[in-house]
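Table S2 (text version). Query chain:
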Amino acid sequence: MSEIRNSILELIGETPLLALDNLTEGCDGRILAKVEYFNPGFSKKDRVALEIILEAERAGALSRGQTVVELTSGNMGTGLAIVCRQRGYPFVAVMSKGNSEERARMMRAFGAEVVLVEQCPGSEVGQVSGDDLALVEKRASEITTERDAFRADQFHHAGNMLAHYRHTGPELWRQSNETISGFCDFVGSGGSIAGVATYLKEQRADIKCYVVEPENAAVLGGETVTDPRHSIQGGGYAMADLTFLENVTIDGFLKVSDAAAREATRRLAEKEGIFAGFSSGANVAAAMDLLNGPMRGEVIAVLICDSGLKYLSTDLWP
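Corresponding structure-token output:
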């Protein structure tokens, strides 16, 4: 088979799986990290963007040349910018000004129109709350109506979960030689935890799957929000009605502080050469807690969700 690819879209998926043996030295057990920044847009959301657009085309929900609109913290927007340009659709990304500016620059470079929405009074740059996200959702809905656009709607479109059920989960299982006994994932839209957990539990019902949330906004775990602001961009927006989780068996809920996510992200770079973002650090911090607690001696899989290059303007990298 030829090694030449005819489209950048053919490079989405089949990302490498790396054992974090330097980081877990001295621990009983292993963490296997799927390095999703090897995707063209440097995040796991490339998979979702491609699956949503292909599903919309198959269903006849997306017309040739029609504008696509989506709310994003940056990663989904980057994936859609790449996919839409290659498939011939104008794309409008709607994002909070609280997200790192590198993301907007990257989406524009890929040909997207980027609409930035002001944060709520009292919000801080780098800390996007549920209230901030509600303003972004409102503007995205308005633009969709104004332009008679297709709303990619990552929080509800089945293509999100299916991307991970059809591809990420099977890749993890195959690449790990079917040794995974646990999976934990920081939740944004819920697509990756739903898709991967569903697939893994079909392979072996006793695989433990955990939701990861910010320490002070662990709504999915049934706790009261004490502070909706956090630094882990791309998720944890205190949205309790995530449709993808409705029929998924979750074995537990884990909380990670900004400080723990930040420290784990920096240790990933120092110990493993993985230059990642906050949510990747949150996943690794949660997996370390599992290895040091209820899953001692087990093999836990995590996603390295995106690249640290998207966080150079934040306090992640002093």
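Notes on Table S2: The longest helix spans residues 158-175. The helical segments are 45-59, 75-87, 101-109, 130-146, 158-175, 191-203, 258-272, 278-291.
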